[in-house]
Amino acid sequence: MAHTFDDLVALEQAAEEAHARYTTPGNVDLDAARHAWLDAAHAFQAAVTEYAKAEGKPRIDVEMAVKKTVRHGDAD
């Protein structure tokens, strides 16, 4: 599946949200929350790798651009 930059942003946002649920105090099912976070993070990482390869860009540059967009609302 070909991903767009917007797809990567959505996947990273999902991973960030899953991490927030995992680290929320009083979380009843830590194991399930941890697995959801790790699954979301893995999906993001795999998509970044695929996108970077397809675009001929360094993987780290793609990942950092996505993270900057998610955290600060802008991309280069």
End-to-end gap: 24 Å
Rg, alpha carbons: 13 Å
Shape: elongated
Sketch the major β-sheet: none
Task: Describe the protein's architecture and organization.
- The protein has 76 residues and is mainly alpha-helical.
- The protein contains 3 helices and no strands.
- α1 runs antiparallel to α2 (30-55), α1 (5-23) crosses α3 and α2 (30-55) crosses α3.
- The radius of gyration is 13 Å and the shape is elongated.
- The model has no long low-confidence stretch (mean pLDDT 93).
Give a short summary of the structure.
With 76 residues, this protein is an all-alpha fold. Helix content is 78%, strand content 0%.
List the helices and strands and how they pair.
Blueprint: H1 5-23, H2 30-55, H3 59-72
Helix pairs in contact: 1-2, 1-3, 2-3
